[in-house]
Design goal:
single chain, about 250 residues, Rossmann fold, 2 domains, 3-stranded antiparallel sheet, about 20% strand
């Protein structure tokens, strides 16, 4: 029990039971979330970038994201796999770039994509955290849970990327460009000591293994598997929704 609560109990020990009950209630409010986090012990984090818009992509030789759910479906299937391996009560957090899905819903699919994503949270009993900017992702990695108690055992990214950057809204607001990203130069903000000894870390985007994986290892001391070359989310239903390597690509990092 924290020292300040012990001091309060000592001070009011000769009074009526009511102050003591109040002190005990305050202690429960403080201790219960921390106790729950301590019981979890490890967190499995899955990150989903957003889909592009066909108004930018349709005239390209290889258009991206004909289906809005490429990244979300891959992340959802991965969550199911983790639950199967580690148990249904495993602490899994899905971080999703909300503006991309809102824009795709309004300008292309004309359906409630945000509601669809929320239903994944409810059906599979995982945590859902929306984000807009790369620094919010860093903030969650560092402080989303009390990291002295809950270490990161798994971190995976599903979305667009290049060799030095995760691009959360690639070709979603601007043709072939992004306004929301996490660059390898920003990885230095990740705190030390927040991962388990041997975490599983993988970027399922294109080209990550060519540079960003090396910077991640230098900053965190942990390996991040990344593609040297391109990855492919098309026809995911034929592969159990696991992203594939394009011809000539390989995993590195």
């Amino acid at each position: 029990m924290p020292d300040f609560l012990l001091a309060l109990i000592f001070r009011y020990q000769n009074l009526s039971p009511m102050p003591l009950l109040l002190v005990f209630y305050i202690f429960l409010l403080i201790a219960m979330p921390t106790a729950a986090a301590a019981q979890a012990g490890e967190e499995y984090i899955l990150v989903s970038g957003g889909p592009s818009l066909q108004e930018w992509e349709r005239y390209k030789a290889e258009p991206h994201d004909l289906w809005w759910g490429n990244f979300i479906r891959a992340a959802r299937v991965r969550a199911q796999e983790i639950q199967k391996q580690k148990g249904a009560d495993t602490l899994i957090t899905l971080l999703v770039h909300k503006p991309s899905y809102k824009r795709r819903a309004m300008r292309q699919d004309k359906t409630d994509l945000i509601g669809n994503i929320t239903s994944v949270r409810d059906k599979y009993n995982i945590r859902l955290v929306w984000f807009e900017k790369g620094e919010e992702l860093i903030t969650y990695i560092n402080n989303g849970m009390p990291r002295n108690l809950v270490k990161i055992a798994n971190f995976e990214y599903f979305g667009h990327s290049n060799r030095a950057c995760w691009m959360f809204d690639y070709s979603n607001e601007i043709d072939s460009a992004s306004k929301s990203w996490l660059h390898e130069s920003e990885l230095k903000s990740i705190r030390q000591g927040i991962f388990v000894r041997k975490p599983f870390i993988k970027s399922w985007g294109c080209h990550t293994g060519e540079s960003m994986s090396k910077v991640w290892k230098k900053v965190t001391g942990k390996r991040m598997i990344g593609a040297i070359g391109k990855t492919d989310y098309a026809n995911g239903h034929l592969r159990g929704w696991v992203p594939a390597l394009s011809r000539g690509a390989r995993w590195g990092g």
